[in-house]
Amino acid sequence: MLEHGGGLREAAARYQIPLSDWLDLSTGINPEGWPAPAIAAVAWQRLPEWDDGLESAAADYYGTAQLLPVAGSQAAIQALPLLRDPGRVGVLYPSYAEHAHAWRRAGHEVELLPADGLAAALDRLNVLVVINPNNPTGICFSSNVLLEWHRRLADRNGWLVVDEAFADAAPTDSVAVHAGLAGLVVLRSLGKFHGLAGARVGFLLAESALLERASEQLGPWAVTGPSRAVAMRALADRGWQEQARVKLARSSRRLAELLGRQGLPVASGTALFQWLPLADAEFWQDALARRGILVRRFSEPSGLRFGLPGPEPAWRRLELALVGIRAERMRGDRIR
Fold first, then answer.
1. Is the pLDDT confidence value at 2 over 50?
2. What is the mean pLDDT of the chain?
3. Is 234 within 8 Å of 30 (Cβ atoms)?
């Protein structure tokens, strides 16, 4: 199993801090997500049904009916490499590590590529996997660039796979509406922007033939009845979505400013997190954890990803912790 954000119980045990006392900034999930309602009893008592309205709500939201509900985009990440013969797969690096892991496990030759090396690598690839906006660096590619890369790959029966898990907060460069094109595969999720990670609902957007093969691979009832009911309503709530986009953009800017005031090198980010390349990322992660604040550390390249604090007391807690760590470090440097 690869390392991911979260893992609060493990952190609580390691640092001997009660679970309830933690501030979790490690996941990039909207801390003030869509307010899920109570679930009707029938959703628990019957097998999930495909004609309950979820697909229609998703088609309206994503701008295409070429989609398949899956148990979080992770399910699609694991299934896609099994749907084509082993080949050469380029994966944006650094990025969400599950992509490269899944393609390697299925027997494909994986090449990790920096953002500025993607275009030059296309002619030697059968598949290119891009996360847009990227996790953890926040780099974003324009839809025009992505569609040109798709055209070049599709001319050789290749695929462009675009993971848009963080696209909902600013969907301008989404290529979801083009998902019917042969060789274009888009992954979406309700876990980040909508804050419904526990529901495990995502969507695979692609041409019909690929969706049929993926459905056979994943089997029936991929998404539970309760999760379908919640997802359908969340996708239809345009008022909440519009307000959330404005609020998240404002919070993201505030987080970048807060980190910058403490001398931390904010490089980039999205509406849901900020990315800091840090040679001493391990020190900062540990120092924050000792204060009950969990952030996501990456070792290659070395850096930290900070999610949004959420309620006002959480912002104050983060700022005080950073001030305290910086002060302690300066005192230590003077003593040495």
1. no
2. 95
3. no
Every domain of the chain and the residues it spans: 8-33+239-335, 41-236
Of the candidates 168, 160, 165, the one whose C-alpha atom is nearest the C-alpha of residue 206 is 160
Strand partners, 38: none
Q: Any alpha helices (H) in 96-207, and if so which ranges?
A: 98-105, 118-121, 143-154
The half-sphere exposure of 67 on its side-chain side, counting CA atoms within 13 A, is 26
Residues in the chain: 336
Tracing tokens 């295409």 back to the chain, one arrives at 64
Query: Could you report the per-residue pLDDT of 174-190, keeping only the tens digit for each?
Result: 999 999 999 999 999 99
**Structure tokens belonging to residue 99:** 């992509």
- Per residue in 276-333, pLDDT tens? 999 999 999 999 999 999 999 998 899 999 999 999 999 999 999 999 999 888 876 6
8-33+239-335 to CATH, choices 1.10.1740.10, 3.30.700.30, 3.40.50.720, 3.90.1150.10: 3.90.1150.10
For the residues 136-148, what does the mean pLDDT come to? 97
Q: Give 44: exposed, middle or buried? Use CB within 10 Å, 0-12, 13-18, 19+.
A: exposed
The backbone region for 230, taken as left when phi is positive above 0, alpha when psi lies in -120 to 50, beta otherwise, is alpha
Cα–Cα distance for residue pair 85/81, rounded to 1 Å: 8
Residue 116 has pLDDT above 50, yes or no: yes
How far, in Å, are 148, 198, 230, 328 from residue 22 at the CA level? 45, 18, 27, 21
Structure tokens at 308: 């949004």
H/E stretch holding 75: helix 73-79
The answer to whether residues 214 and 206 touch, using CB atoms and an 8 Å cutoff, is yes
> Residue 335 pLDDT > 80, yes or no?
no
User: Token pair for residue 214?
Assistant: 């993926």
